[in-house]
Amino acid sequence: MTGTAADALAVTRVLDAADRIVVVSPHFDDAVLSAGGLIAARVEARQPVEVLTVFSSARAIATRGGRHQAFTDYALRVAEDDRALAALGARARRLGLYERLFRDPPPRGPFGLFRTSLEIARSAETSAVQRAIAEALNNGNAIILAPLGIGNHVDHVIVTVGALRAIRDRDAQARVLFFEDFNAMSERNRRLHPVSRLRPFPFRDAPGWASPRTAVEMTAISLLTRGPDPTALCDLPVRAEEWSMSALPLTTRHETAKFEALAEYRTQTSALGGEPQLRALLERAHARRGGELLWRFRASGASSS
Fold first, then answer.
1. Would 290 disulfide with which of 2, 51, 55, 110, CB 3.0-4.6 Å?
2. What is the DSSP string of 105-139?
């Protein structure tokens, strides 16, 4: 079940009233994977869109090898990001933090990236994200789009915690929206997250049926994630009446623009099963879920604007 028409209309009005949209992307490609159609639509409507990529650098990248070697060429990855965002007409900004894959101590195997700890709440990375979001909110009438942290990837959770801290201010709540991370392509991942599980989809509609290999990998991740979720790290109780989900439909033109931008991320798309499989997965998600999904938090007693 998707969000109501009233929910979608409320979110559209919030977006329309902004002087610009700032999409906070944990890594290169996350913004386009989750909200590429929305970005294309907003740019077409002559609304400035900025993509702020948080984890866009690495320390001692030469010490990492194996299956992650392709991710160590940051000159290539930045060039891919530049081309993708230029294709959508969005402005690129980068916070320059080191992604978890290249922070010390090294994660224990690939699944170490999906194991969170209480240290996240007091990390320098979380504070940097919180400051960047606060700065954007204080500069004009921007609307922030941030990830929900579905899938428990450490870097995504850090960004979500920074955004959730921003909405402690009730005035900011109307200006921060949350998109579903790519790992939400797994319905099991969605149902493990305290917010997205409020609006489950039938397993028979799961996007993974269009790309079984990717679905199997995501299921494996969901079985091995450990640690607190973003709301727990912020001591934010999840109440169904305070969260609403909206599905924003994509026109054929905007969906095509999203896929053309994604095609520029060759480093990432190969790691996600290849461009054809990725496209099939996202097409099914858009069709079965009604478009790209956004969540809005409104604390009990807040106005319904």
1. 2
2. SPPSSGGGGGB--GGGGG-HHHHHHHHHHHHHHTS
